[in-house]
Design brief:
386 residues, mainly beta, Jelly Rolls, 5 helices, elongated
Length: 386
Amino acid sequence: MDPKFNDIQTSIANQIFKVVFFPDRIYHAQYLNATRSARYRYNVMEVRGYTDINIMKGEVYMDGLFYTNFLRIEYRAGRLVEQIREVDRMLGWELLCWIRLTMADEKTQADTIVRLHYDPWVHSFQTEIWETLEPPNNNFHDLSVLEMMGRSGPITRVRNFNPLLRDIKGIKHVEIAFREAETTPSSNHTVTDPVWDNNFSRTHQEPRQPDVPSSDQNTVRDNNYRLDFQRGYHKHTDDVVPVKYLNALMEPENPEFDKTGQNIVEMKWMLQRELGSSLIFFHEVTIPPGKTEGTHQHVGSEELYFITQGEGVAYMRVGDDPDIDNVFPTESRHVFGIGFRDFKAIPVRPGSMIYTKSGGMHGIRNTKNAPGDPPLKFVAFLYHST
């Protein structure tokens, strides 16, 4: 860590906003694998995190001299534990991890499966992939570190990763998924149907058929996590092609369901897999005059709408925000997959915000329907709440 960061951390400006820049101050370099010997030192260049996952990349120094580049994976396995419990098994002291590296040119890639080992120091399953395990000429590894090295060890080497690790700064993003080990921890029985944590069967949206509303081709099935090492993005909505959706979050039994196929809303997906933490997407939604995004419930996720253009009505279930229950009129509305519930009808305009937490219900409609009326536009954040 740059020692100047201590000054930044304690400056008056930083105290006002309490901004701590993970991982520059928080990462636990003293607990990385080779630090059991004083001969090794790590230079952690960057860290990316997503829910239970940390991925570090940087350099290893041996006896004060640069030795090798490395990539470290840490996983706390909360989601995988849930998956394994569903099939009446338990997680052991090891698990497997599929990982794919992609370089800045977006074409150079390599993937492999490595073994992760539980480390009580960081309360995570982890492994480190080093560019080389061979000691420098006329030198030798400390025995306490050497015993950790090997094909299935917590310090390992992956041959087809070597060219990518050599350019450690050029690794743009890492895709990753986790599965239970080959045998059960207690009985040592072979696992023939291993369960995976693949980020809730993660997908993302692309305008592959932009003129076909709700086309299955626009949904890309990733089935993994992605941690992005690019450090900044600039985009403008004018440059983003929208994806169209027909009767978004509505079913045929909904009285507002448009059988003529005209209830089409557009979504410009500004950021999806680029986001870290537990964020899922940030997008801009356009609802034409007279059209609707159906009311629906969030379970295990939270979403925020911020209106930027036009006027309409947002719907929030009665009781979700008690402060508005005696302010706005009540309407019965059909909820996607659930049936009818009572909602408060809230007039919205630029500057209005609707925030729905896990368990809450919401929807939105453009109430203007005269010739020349503007569309209703809002931006939305969605993220996992657990």
